[in-house]
Write a sequence for this structure.
């Protein structure tokens, strides 16, 4: 039975197929064009702590 289940498994794509649609490409390009003043050196990344929320002592 496990061998049969594996026949339905498909490899995941590296990106969503919707990204290739013309309407999505147009909107993505418009968004990128609007980010000209975005300075990557000033970006701040805040790590998510949600995965630790269930552990005792992490209140």
């Amino acid at each position: 039975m496990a061998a049969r289940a594996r026949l339905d498994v498909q490899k995941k794509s590296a990106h969503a197929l919707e990204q290739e649609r013309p309407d999505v490409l147009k909107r993505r390009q418009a968004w990128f064009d609007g980010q000209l003043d975005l300075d990557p050196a000033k970006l701040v990344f805040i790590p998510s702590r949600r995965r630790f929320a269930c552990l005792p002592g992490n209140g």
